[in-house]
Structures are given as structure tokens and as C-alpha cells.
Automatic annotation (TrEMBL):
Endpoints of the signal sequence: none
InterPro entries the record matches: DDH_dom, DHH_sf, DHHA1_dom, RecJ, RecJ_C, RecJ_OB, SSDNA_exonuclease_RecJ
Species annotation: Latilactobacillus curvatus
Family: Belongs to the RecJ family.
Limits of the DHHA1 domain: 347-439
Key words, A-Z: Exonuclease, Hydrolase, Nuclease
Protein name: Single-stranded-DNA-specific exonuclease RecJ
Ranges for domain RecJ OB: 454-560
Pfam families for the chain: DHH, DHHA1, RecJ_OB, ssDNA-exonuc_C
Length: 764
């Protein structure tokens, strides 16, 4: 089994480096190594990282235009002006909107909220919406998690007497809008000490300035938006998320309490992973499928009954989102496997009826499966337009590739790894050609595996609760402070199980002498058979705790795995079923008649060949038995497969039937002498009469024929009148049977461990 990634072990510090770090905080060795690898080496940096606190937060007035923004908002509050908070439909936008709404309401402001609709309004300031806000009496617009790209809508608002305060964190355009104030951590005229705040982080800084104190009760929202937006979890963001997690674990917000309950999240032990894989996808599902205003209401409501009702609806939306992703991904995967797409360096997959809100997730799945930059688009036959999302790999700058093709596109935006676009359907093929040309012109090798940075190499016996606790001191994990990846080599695995409703996940136990560790492998159910045959396995994954019925144990969340050498799979059977012919690969036959008889069983995309013709095929399924061990050895030595499955089917077993004794031979021969001219068609009746199995009777007859004891003429069997004397063992058929018995004993009726040990001898 080949690794999906190219594993790269991070540099290892010297003992002197480790001792220096361990002396600062009395840290265990594993934690000290992780800090060193992350560049956290000085006493000040170590202390700051290990003890995040509010004293590490930067002055909100260090943000450019903050004083102007505060003055304008306070004037609007004092003057009773109508303020509209203009938000966004993802988790960062929803939490930003909720935080700003609560802040302004606490100041006594007249506040309304507008969260754009993904499908109707699109991302960011929408001119038609701004016109409506102006018409409806809004006097101040405060954007959150958007605005810097809203040149035209903001100009319209300002020209019509409506001021706009922008709070945003997205990429800055070459020309900034003419807003009253622009609060942005990377403002070209500012010098804010931390550039990677997300939308809710910027909103939090504005709230802190407006309230003239830190709004601790809002830190739960800040933690959610910061984790979900995948910004750097260092510096100020590490503080915000650390404090926010504490707030989340004790939050009294009815909406968050209900959301955790409906999602099955233990609020008391909630961490960044719970946000990233539990809370975030549910909040995002609201905007992906409908009106994200529901998310703002859920986070801000004080009505417990309403919160439970809304959380249940969110759960339904998330399940609907999961179903759509699964359905579209399955079809997109099929499309990706057409001969044309397999030959293409990039993928452009478009189809009618796909839900636009989930296409980015689908594109990510296809990239993960294929390693190819991928666009996934929904076709609208009424307009002739295709709209969707794209995802890429590190080596391929998707934004640059598409930016050079704007003449083919109706709308387009994004960055290195992700884009959104709308384009005419009749330009899809041209765009894919252009994407392939970009890869060729820039000499981008898309066949290389993505890299996986491994933090620690540990023996299974070294994976202890103490090590886990040491590693956990570096949490919360996220961008620029990833959860540590551990590599380990395990001699064997046991208790391999397929889990999940559709059996697509795996659970097994890694074993090394007395040490054991449970391993969870999501979306790796197809490896079930392979893992049954593994002798030694290398794993990379992240440690976590699993609590079941009050008992807490460690487990490894698998990221990647690999084996060295050949994978052997035991499918030995004396019955051929359709199930044995489901795998793709090359089906190998020793018997030419079997190959002809079973040709119709071979699945599409696979082939059937004789053992003598095996050469470079990667995956082999050996269907029938060889004649003897010599024939098998000749086959095994010439093959170069990475995986071989053994069925070794035979209609009759020489090993189980054995060889008749001399008394049985004598009884049969005497009968033939007494009853000349027996029809071959009546051998079955004769076997019953003599109480000898028919296959044995046929074998005995062959021996007699080889030795000249009988003759067969015109289908009639008779004993020879005066045959020469020969030992039964001298008959070729007798020797062949002995060889077959020896072969079956070694290959068919041995334990699989015995068989693998025997095969290992060929590699020595």
C-alpha cells in the first residue's frame, strides 16, 4: 500500500537545544521538540506561547482608521441613526455579524442586520442591496468580514449621504473604496503588529474600542470564526481562541448550547477540533443551502425554546448538505475517471442540477482523490452559464491560471488554492485546455505526491497518556500551529473492522508486542482486505482521546499509511462466487480451460491472462491452482506485482482425497478383468458400486492406462490380457498426483501465515 503523501520528517533539535527549552517551562521532551520545530526557542517566545492571556492582545487603536470608525459609530448611536451591519454567509461572517450586532445594541444603537444571500447577492457589497438600504433609511453601514472589494456600492452609498465603515481582512485590491473608515489588519497605511486577524477578529477589535473594555462574553464567537476561517493560530489569534474556548465551554448562549447538543458535542471538553468539524460545518451549511440570517439569530437569541428549534433545523440542513456532497462527489468522481479526464492534468467537471452551495467541498474531495486542480460547476440550461468553485494543489496557482483567461469567464475571484467563477458553458473545454497549458508552460509536475510534514517518530510503546498530555500543551491547533503528526512503525494490526453506515471507514488495532493502540481511518474502508494481510505497517496520524463509558483511552486518527514489499491477500476458496470477481486487476489462470470458462466473470476494466504471460501487472488475482509447485514458482518469480490475491480454486482436491491404497487399486483392477468393455459413461455407477469416490476412480484408471494395465477403445474400458509388471508409483499420473498433493498442502491447505513464510523464501 503506497502512501498518499510524501512524508517529510521535520528537523530534530540537538539535546542542548531541547534542554534549553525544557529548562524554561519544565516541559517534557516531546513538547520541547515541537516548540523548537515551530521556531519558538527563546524564553520570552516560549512563555508567551505556553501562557496566552489578555495582556498579549494588541491595542485596537493600533489599527489604522480605528479612531475615525469609533467616532463615526458613536455619533450614529448618540444621534439615533439607523445602522445596518452588512455581514457574510460563512461561519466567520455569521459570528462577525452577531458580535457587531450585540456590541451596537449594548450601546443603545438602532441596529439592523443584513446577511447577503449566497445565490442572490453573492459575496461582499452588492450594489442593488446598498441601493435598497439607502432607500430604506439606513444612515450608516458597518461591514463585517467584507467590504474592501466593494468599490462601486460603497461609492454609491457615500454619494447618497450614507457613510460606510468597513471592517474586513480579505485581500486588499489595488484601489480601496472611498469609505468613511477602513479597519483592516494589513491596511497599506497602517502598522498593526499582527496581520492575520479574521473577520470576527477585526470586529472584536472594533467592539473593544467602542466598549472601552474587552467584551469577554463575545470571545466564544471570536473563537468559532477564527478557527473556521483557517487564519494563523499564532500571536493574537492564539490568545483569542484560547480564551474563547474557555468561554465556549461555559457559554450560556442558548443557541450554542442547543447547537452543541444537537451535534453531539460535549460542551465541557469542546476544543478547536470540535469547532472545525462540528460547529463550523453546521453554521456554514446554513449559508450554503439558504438564508444565513438564521445563523445570526441562533447565536444571539435568548429564547431557549427558539434556540432548540433553530439548532434542530441547522442539524437538518447540515445532514442535507452532507447528502448533497456525497451524491455530487460520487458523480463527479465517475466523471473524473473517464479516459479523457484521466489523461488530463486538470479537471473541469460540470453538470446540470448540482447545488451551487456545496461545489467547493466537492472540488476539495476530487482534488484529494486525484491530486489534480479541479473546477466543479453547476450548469444552468436556461442561461447557458456554469457557476461553481475550484480547488487546487500547492504546486498549481489556480488564481493565476484562471486570471489569464478572464475573456472566457463571466465572473471570477479567489486566490492560490481556491476560486469561485461563472462562465459560459460553451467555453468549458477551452478553459480546461488553458488550465492544462498553464501546467505545461510552467513545468508543473502534478504527478508528484503532496508533502506531509511529520513532527515526531515514536515507537508504539512510547505513545502514552503522558506523551499525549505533553503534546496537548501546544493546543489550540490550527493554521501555522498544526496538530502534531506522529509516525510509527507497527509489526502487525488486528481487529480490522469496516465502520460507518456505508462501511467506508476503518477501525483497527496497531500491535507491537504488549503495546496496542486503536486507529481510526476515515474514508479508507477499501483497504479492509489489504490490512488483513499486512505484516508490517507504517502509520502517520494525530493522537486523540476517546472516552467510552467512563473509560478514556488513546487513539490515532490516521492521516496516511504505507507498507513495504508485497501485499498478499487470502481469498482461498473451493467455491467460485461473483463476489470473488469484483476487484479490479489482472486475473491469472494456470488452466487455459478455466480462463475460457470464466472470461465472462472478469469485471470491466480488468483482464484475464495465463500465468506464463504475467509480467508487469501491479495487482494480480490468482484464480485457480497450479499443476505443481514448480509451475507456481515459475509464475511467482517472474511477477512484479505490488498486491496478489490468492483464490486457488479447484473443483476436486487431491490433498483432501489423498491416494487410494493398494487394496482399492487391486479391487478396481479385478473388477475390470471380470467385466470387460465397461462404458466410460458408467464410471459414476461403478464408483458408487465399489464405494470409491469418482475422482479417485478416474485417477486410478489413469494410472492403469499409463502402465498399460487397461485399454480404452471406442469408449469401452477393458483390462489388458498380459500386461507388463510396473510399480503403481512409476506411473506419470501417480507422480503428478503426488506433486499436486504437495502443492495443495503448501499453497491451499496451509495457514496463511505458513504460506507467507514459504513465499518469503523466494525473496531471500
Amino acid at each position: 500500500m503506497e502512501a498518499q503523501y510524501e512524508w517529510q520528517l521535520k528537523a530534530t533539535p540537538t539535546d542542548q537545544d531541547l534542554q534549553a527549552i525544557m529548562a524554561v517551562e519544565a516541559l517534557p521532551k516531546a513538547a520541547a521538540q515541537l516548540l523548537w520545530q515551530r521556531g519558538i526557542k527563546t524564553p520570552e517566545a516560549i512563555s508567551t506561547f505556553m501562557h496566552p492571556n489578555v495582556g498579549q492582545l494588541h491595542d485596537p487603536y493600533a489599527l489604522y482608521d480605528m479612531q475615525t470608525a469609533v467616532d463615526r459609530i458613536q455619533a450614529a448611536v448618540m444621534g439615533g441613526e439607523k445602522i445596518t451591519v452588512y455581514g457574510d454567509y460563512d461561519a466567520d461572517g455569521i459570528t462577525s455579524t452577531a458580535l457587531m450586532q450585540e456590541t451596537l445594541e449594548s450601546l443603545g444603537a438602532d441596529v439592523e442586520v443584513y446577511v447577503p444571500n449566497r445565490f442572490k447577492d453573492g459575496y461582499g457589497p452588492n450594489l442593488d442591496v446598498y441601493k435598497q438600504l439607502v432607500e430604506n433609511g439606513t444612515q450608516l453601514i458597518v461591514t463585517v468580514d467584507n467590504g474592501v472589494s466593494g468599490l462601486e456600492p460603497i461609492a454609491y452609498a457615500q454619494e447618497h449621504g450614507v457613510d460606510v465603515v468597513v471592517t474586513d481582512h480579505h485581500e486588499l485590491p489595488s484601489t480601496l473604496p472611498n469609505a468613511t473608515a477602513i479597519i483592516h489588519p494589513r491596511h497599506p497605511e497602517g502598522q498593526y503588529p499582527f496581520s492575520d486577524l479574521c473577520g470576527v477578529g477585526v470586529a472584536f477589535k472594533v467592539a473593544t474600542a467602542l466598549l472601552e473594555e474587552i467584551p469577554y462574553e463575545s470571545l466564544d464567537l471570536v473563537a468559532i470564526g477564527t478557527v473556521c476561517d483557517l487564519v494563523s493560530l499564532t500571536d493574537e489569534n492564539r490568545v483569542l481562541v484560547s480564551l474563547g474556548l474557555q468561554q465556549l465551554q461555559n457559554t450560556s448562549r442558548p443557541g450554542l448550547v442547543a447547537l452543541c447538543q444537537s451535534a453531539g458535542i460535549e460542551q465541557e471538553t469542546l476544543d478547536a477540533t470540535s469547532i472545525g468539524f462540528g460547529i463550523g460545518p453546521r453554521l456554514n451549511a446554513i449559508g450554503r443551502l439558504g438564508d444565513a440570517n438564521l445563523g445570526v439569530n441562533l447565536l444571539t437569541t435568548f429564547d431557549e425554546e427558539q434556540a432548540v428549534e433553530q439548532a434542530q433545523f441547522v442539524e437538518q440542513q447540515n445532514k442535507k448538505r452532507q447528502g448533497l456532497v456525497q451524491e455530487i462527489t460520487a458523480l463527479a468522481s465517475e466523471m473524473a475517471q473517464t479516459p479523457e479526464n484521466q489523461a488530463s492534468a486538470t479537471l473541469v467537471l460540470a453538470h446540470e442540477g448540482w447545488h451551487e452551495g456545496v461545489l467547493g467541498i466537492v472540488a476539495s474531495h476530487i482534488v484529494e482523490q486525484t491530486g489534480k486542480p479541479t473546477l466543479v460547476l453547476a450548469i444552468d440550461p436556461a442561461t447557458g452559464q456554469a457557476k461553481g468553485s475550484g480547488r487546487s494543489v500547492e504546486a498549481y496557482h489556480l488564481f493565476k491560471a484562471l486570471d489569464a483567461q478572464r475573456t472566457l469567464l463571466t465572473h471570477f475571484g479567489g486566490h492560490h488554492m481556491a476560486v469561485g467563477l461563472t462562465m459560459p458553458v460553451d467555453q468549458l473545454a477551452a478553459l480546461q485546455t488553458a488550465m492544462n497549458t498553464y501546467a505545461a508552460d510552467n513545468q508543473i509536475d502534478l504527478t508528484t505526491k503532496p508533502t506531509l510534514a511529520v513532527d515526531l517518530q515514536l515507537a508504539l510503546a512510547d505513545v502514552t497518556p503522558d506523551v499525549y498530555q505533553a503534546i496537548s500543551q501546544l493546543a489550540p491547533y490550527g493554521t501555522d500551529n498544526p496538530e502534531p503528526l506522529i509516525e510509527m512503525t507497527v509489526p502487525s494490526v488486528t481487529n480490522v473492522k469496516q465502520i460507518g453506515a456505508d462501511q467506508k471507514h476503518l477501525k483497527f488495532t496497531a500491535v507491537d508486542q504488549e503495546a496496542q493502540l486503536a486507529v481510526l481511518a476515515f474514508n479508507r474502508g477499501a483497504l479492509y482486505d489489504d490490512l488483513q494481510a499486512v505484516e508490517q505497517l507504517k502509520l502517520v496520524g494525530q493522537l486523540s482521546e476517546n472516552t467510552w463509558r467512563g473509560n478514556t483511552t488513546l487513539q490515532l486518527m490516521l492521516k496516511d499509511l504505507q507498507t513495504s514489499g508485497q501485499v498478499l491477500i487470502d481469498q482461498r476458496s473451493n467455491r467460485l462466487t461473483q463476489q470473488l470477481f469484483k476487484a479490479s486487476g489482472t486475473y491469472v489462470f494456470f488452466n487455459e480451460k478455466h480462463l475460457a470458462q470464466l472470461q465472462s466473470y472478469i469485471p470491466a476494466g480488468s483482464q484475464a491472462i495465463l500465468a506464463a504471460d504475467v509480467a508487469q501487472q501491479a495487482e494480480l488475482i490468482v484464480v485457480d491452482e497450479p499443476t505443481d509447485l514448480d509451475e507456481f514458482e515459475a509464475f511467482y518469480r517472474q511477477q512484479q506485482a505490488t498486491k496478489i490475491s490468492f483464490i486457488f480454486y479447484s473443483k476436486y482436491s487431491a490433498y483432501l482425497d489423498g491416494i487410494p491404497d493398494k487394496k482399492q487399486f487391486a479391487t478396481f483392477l479385478v473388477y475390470l478383468r471380470q467385466h470387460p468393455g465397461i462404458e466410460k459413461a458408467r464410471l459414476g455407477e461403478l464408483a458408487t458400486y465399489l464405494k470409491i469416490k469418482l475422482p479417485l476412480l478416474i485417477f486410478m484408471l489413469q494410472v492403469f492406462f499409463d502402465l498399460g494395465f487397461v485399454k480404452i477403445e471406442c469408449g469401452l474400458i477393458s483390462a489388458a490380457e498380459q500386461p507388463e509388471k510396473h510399480a503403481l508409483e512409476s506411473a506419470p499420473s501417480y507422480q503428478q498426483r503426488l506433486a499436486k498433493i504437495d502443492m495443495e498442502k503448501q499453497l491451499v491447505y496451509s495457514t496463511f501465515a505458513e504460506m507467507k513464510d514459504w513465499l518469503a523464501g523466494f525473496n531471500q
